[in-house]
Amino acid sequence: MDSGRNAALYAVTDGFDVAQKGINGRRVAGQSFLQGFFRHADVSEVVSVSNSTADGETFATLMAQTSGAPALPHRHVPRHSLTQIAPLGVMFYPAPDFSELAFERQAFGHSAYALCGITHTTSTLAVMKGFFQLRSSPYQPWDAVICTSRAVQAASLINLEQIDDYLTRTLGAGAARRALPLMPVIPLGLDVASYARDEGARKSLRTRMGWGKNDVVFTTLARLLPYGKFDPAPYFIALQAAQATLGTSRRLHVVMCGIYGDTHSQSVFEECARSLMPDVSFTHLDGADAQARKEALSGGDVFSFPIDNVQETFGLAPVEGMAAGLPVLASDWDGIRDTVTRETGILIPTRMISGPASAPEAKGHFLAQLSYAQYGNNLSAMTVLDQGAMREGIVALARDADLRARLGQAGLARARSLFDWSNIIPTYQALWAEQNAIRAAHAPMRPEALTLSPLPATLFAGYPSHQMPQGGLHLCAKATTARLREIYALRRYAKIGRPFEQLSTLERVFTAISDHAEAGVHITALPQILGWQAATIERAVMFLLKYDLIEIRA
Predict the structure, then answer these.
(1) Is 273:234 a contact under the CB 8 Å cutoff?
(2) In angstroms, rounded to a whole number, what is the distance separating the alpha carbons of residues 396 and 314?
(3) Which of 60, 163, 194, 263 has the greatest number of beta carbons closer than 10 A?
């Protein structure tokens, strides 16, 4: 097992603890990735990174509870001590903007380790700003941002091109010449076996609902947000039209398994269903309930995913449908066209407004005149799913059980071969090995000058009358250790936390000066006397002078 193919995993509880923090897309994806890593990574140890020991303990608990994972040692490293990830040379960060980490790395040397981020949604203002921050940060050629689909990669490159154009216009022709980070396309993954059809769950749902062999169920797993995931109304219109075409030969039913984002979302879904598809039944199942999710996938005949919102970037849900052996009816939209093929489902053509016509949304988004919900809602209102193609797709799938079976079998095979974590994790590891190879070809690790995080006393050198002279000072004690302790306690430095120095350090330096009585001692002699660094002694001396505990002798 080569440590060059391993990476430390930045993992905070809010990003993966579904049980304690609740279900949302990024936590489910974060937990799934970690469990996939625990099961399939070819590594000799697992290393986690966070600011909190509690996060490390929660990470270890998830690792211990992941079935099928080999027993590997776990090591937790505090974020502020990232060189301790060695011998690992890469840290994986579950977001695209690792600019802050790149700034922090300067303290250890740019080649101390590589950073690897990953995209999720690319439509938030935070992500757009994050790319600007990343582009202007001290990232290196051995750093990487994983793009989960070709569409995400294209969107990210457009964002970066606009940033480069701005930097060139404002800072000159050479401002944006530096190479981009590595930006490979690696899809999200899942544990395909865990989505296998459960015949008991299928029977339970269909018996409870009274559905027979001529009832065709179109099922969806998604967040139920009309402004942040998809507008259900066009889909419902197409279903009603399809039911009219099918007549009494087939009865269509819709199952939506998910969590309503709010009462507004619930009203939109349920009132649109009643008004727009009166001849098609609508059933909502709780997306937070594991059994409900199993029933939705196992009891359905077709997995539908009619996305029309820029919030979606990959579309893991259709892969879940394929893993359950279902044919897919989905939008021809961003990452979905990477997951669903003609062999596994039917893609509905989509159409969006031209770039200039979307200027009001761009301006409103960047000036915070539009909330993220309003931004996505407005763009969705101007995104069209081909109604004719959607209706024809629904009819074709409803009429032909053999077609459904053929597409479903192909989808299951595709999910196993391309999207199971057993195949995705080795691809991550190959990227990390590539990053390490590029990093190793760089100059040996050394701390960089913190030009982008200037030393405070250098930055503020013009503030005081004097700084510590290069030749140092001759010092004599004026007070007692008891007085030092009194001052330190009164000033309550420890109460604020992370004091500039511990009291014990101040006492040692004060005692070393006091030991020389009236003759005093030169500051340059103290490092040898105490066996400490000169900077530590200088910090203590400044404190002792500040409170008149020692004095400068000519």
Answers:
(1) no
(2) 26
(3) 163
- Indicate the class that CATH gives domain 192-418: alpha beta
In degrees and rounded to multiples of 5, residue 219 shows phi and psi of -110, 145
| CA separation for the pair 163, 129 (Å, rounded) | 10
| Three-class secondary structure of residue 552 per DSSP | strand
> Would you call 420 helix, strand, or coil by DSSP?
strand
pLDDT band, residue 445 (cuts 50/70/90): low
Would you kindly state where each structural domain of the chain is located, as residue ranges? Answer: 3-189+425-440, 192-418, 456-553
Strand partners, 77: 49
Distance CA(254)–CA(407), nearest Å, equals 19
Q: Which residues, 6+ apart, have CB-to-CB distance to 144 below 8 Å?
A: 114, 115, 116, 117, 181, 182, 183, 184, 431, 435
According to CATH, the topology of domain 456-553 is Arc Repressor Mutant, subunit A (1.10.10)
Question: Each residue of 392-429: pLDDT tens digit?
Answer: 999 999 999 999 999 999 999 999 999 999 999 999 99
Helical (H) or strand (E) element with 372: helix 372-381
Percent helix, strand, coil in the chain (nearest 5)?
50, 15, 35
> Where do runs of H (alpha helix) occur along 44-149?
53-65, 99-105, 125-135
What tens digit of pLDDT does each residue of 363-383 get? Answer: 888 888 888 889 888 888 999
Taking alpha carbons only, the member of 344, 362, 354 closest to residue 384 is: 354
Report, in angstroms and rounded to the nearest whole number, the Rg of the chain calculated over CA atoms: 30
CA distance 93 to 144: 10
Please list, in sequence order, all residues whose beta carbon lies within 8 angstroms of the beta carbon of residue 308, skipping any fewer than 6 positions away. Answer: 230, 231, 234, 331, 333, 350, 380, 383, 384, 385
Nearby residues of 138 by Cβ (< 8 Å), 6 or more positions away: 102, 103, 105, 106, 110, 448, 452
- In this chain, the answer to whether the domains covering 3-189+425-440 and 456-553 adopt an identical fold is no
Identity of the residue numbered 197: R
Gap between the Cα atoms of 235 and 306, Å rounded: 7
List CB contacts of 271: < 8 A, sequence separation 6 or more: none
| β-pair partners for 117 | 145
Collect contacts of 516-523 with beta carbons under 8 A, ≥24 apart. Answer: 516/476, 517/477, 518/476, 519/476, 520/474, 520/475, 520/476, 520/477, 520/553, 521/474, 521/475, 521/476, 522/472, 522/473, 522/474, 522/475, 523/472, 523/473, 523/474, 523/475
Structure tokens at 111: 């080649």
CATH topology assigned to domain 3-189+425-440 = Rossmann fold (3.40.50)
The count of C-alpha atoms lying within 13 angstroms of the C-alpha of 219, restricted to the half-sphere facing its C-beta, is: 32
DSSP code, position 470: T
Percent with pLDDT over 90 in the chain? 68
CA distances in angstroms from 10 to 33, 69, 79, 117, 198, listed in the order given: 12, 19, 8, 10, 35
